[in-house]
Amino acid sequence: MKKLSLILFLALVLFACGKQHNEQLKTTAYHKTAHVRAADGARECMDIDMQIEFPTESQNPQALTPIQQSIMQHLFPDYCASMPIKEAVNAYADTLAKEYQDDNYMLISEDKELMESVHYFPAEFLLNADINNINDNILSYQIEEYNYYGGAHGSTTTTYLVFNLNNGQQLTYADFLDLSDQELTLLLQQELCRQTQLTQLQLEELGYDFSFIKPTQNFFVETDSLVFHYNAYDIAPYCVGAQSIKIPRSK
Prior knowledge:
By secondary structure, the chain is an alpha+beta fold. It has 6 helices and 10 strands.
């Protein structure tokens, strides 16, 4: 059985006009989609869709570079994180497509029954990254990634990055809250109960694990609060979904 060839039925990159968020920051949108057949003649396919809003201009050029570098490191694997954004988007999509076809080929070639029936697996990869908000020169950037490679359901992971637009520094929750980790852990647990209007015992009966409800650097900043984000499985079962806990900045 010959190795599967790469077939892209639809592949396009759109470079949208720049968007001005405030006096300090301008972004450009990059959009790449690809529809990849598992093999010649196969109905199963992988859909790839990447929509990335990327900071491209700033009044503080010295601040822009570290912001871009950090975002690239979180968006892409090491082999393309140092490329220009346009090249990185294309290289990452090409790798995902090749790996998908290679995985199908290996699965089928190792299983005689599959070779005879020729069953391939479908897949989906979605990547969305954009500006969550800007408050007082504090940039909150959001990266949402969805993967499906068979099974009962896919997996969604959301990552937040927070930057100071004046100097490009990536910020932590300690830059906003004058609390020890122990104090913040207790506050997060109390706020979860308050926001859900359920007791700790009731939440634990739903599958929440309070030993995992603790400070995380996965947060974004609002005008008067920090919002800590926990992906599915972080603090509770998949059926509960992702959870966010809001902590007032005055704490």
